[in-house]
Amino acid sequence: xxxxxxxxxxxxxxxxxxxxxxxxxxxxxxxxxxxxxxxxxxxxxxxxxxxxxxxxxxxxxxxxxxxxxxxxxxxxxxxxxxxxxxxxxxxxxxxxxxxxxxxxxxxxxxxxxxxxxxxxxxxxxxxxxxxxxxxxxxxxxxxxxxxxxxxxxxxxxxxxxxxxxxxxxxxxxxxxxxxxxxxxxxxxxxxx
Length: 192
Fold this sequence. Notes:
This protein is 65% helix and 4% strand. With 192 residues, the protein is mainly alpha-helical. A two-stranded antiparallel ribbon has the order 1-2. The radius of gyration is 21 Å and the shape is elongated. The mean pLDDT is 85.
């Protein structure tokens, strides 16, 4: 995706045949947003734990987990999607070149046989940003699991109300993180 020229953008976004590509924030701002999202995950659990007013300490600790899980598993989901996008865009052409080298003893004539065209890179960039929506998809299973778990907590607040609160806030948190990732506000995850 390095061949993409950000000077082609008009303002903060570029309309492409593949969808909208958003200009990412600077690295420093992305890092600050990522840190805010991480600490926000902790804060969300703390705030939701305070709402019933009489939860045990163990229940309060458990209520921190879904937001943290959405953050970390959402990032892991994003890494997996980016790997698939990279393989689809670049890996197949490299495998084809290797096949031609090994089996047919034919070297690539130019870099275009190995690297994707600018149009394909643009498509990959849009798909990579959209993959940030993995936070939203992850939040569904986490929200349902912890909403059901919250039904077992003892509190003056009705169990169904607490479960609904957990469900809505975890889904909202996943949606917010997905929007931040998809708009270029969170740094792209990098594989080790």
